[in-house]
Amino acid sequence: MDSTRTRQALVVRGGWEGHSPVEATERFIPFLKEHGFAVEVHDGPEVYADADRLTATDLVVQCYTQGEATDEQVLGLSAAVAAGTGLAGWHGGVCDSFRGSPDYLHLTGGQWAAHPGGFVDHEVAVVPAKADHEIVAGLDRWSLNTEQYWVLTDDLNDVLATTTFAVRDDTPWREELTCPAVWTRQWGRGRVFVSTIGHKLEDLDHPDVRTLTERGLLWASR
Fold first, then answer.
1. Architecture of the domain spanning 7-220
2. Cα–chain-centroid distance for residue 142?
3. What pTM was estimated for this model as a whole?
4. What pLDDT sits at residue 4?
């Protein structure tokens, strides 16, 4: 690849407005531009069906909660990632998208299932064996009061950070459960970065969350 070529990023945002897709992505567009990306914004997944456009794209940043995507769109995204285009996102904008598409779940490796208790105090902790990974290097653990995502995932993911759900008298689960909170995934020649953190804009402004999210965007890019 020509090292002088301007890298191309697509920001795909929309869906459920409760995750503030415009305001959330606007936090990271200047960062991408500062790191040499030309950024193009789309308000839906229709661009995923444009194979030529995705072939020219180095990074897709998706913040599109719920909603629907056609098989053509999802398979187009999956094929592009397999060919080297990066995919990155946070919270429901990436792990609660296109619930009706098994192919999308296969690509991203995780699906939101619940956030028990709504906004709750909880910790996110870097997996000790991954402490040197470039996305979380120098980070350890931090506390948040926001949605704690219970996610269903598979073992192809490289889990960088986790969060643990405690057992209480009023919980239907009878033992602690530790869930992935941040993971990466290799898909063909492409990379996928998922962070479950980011329901509120303030979550994305937390210094550790901002750091790992920005690093994740760069890591995922072709």
1. 3-Layer(aba) Sandwich (3.40)
2. 19
3. 0.97
4. 66
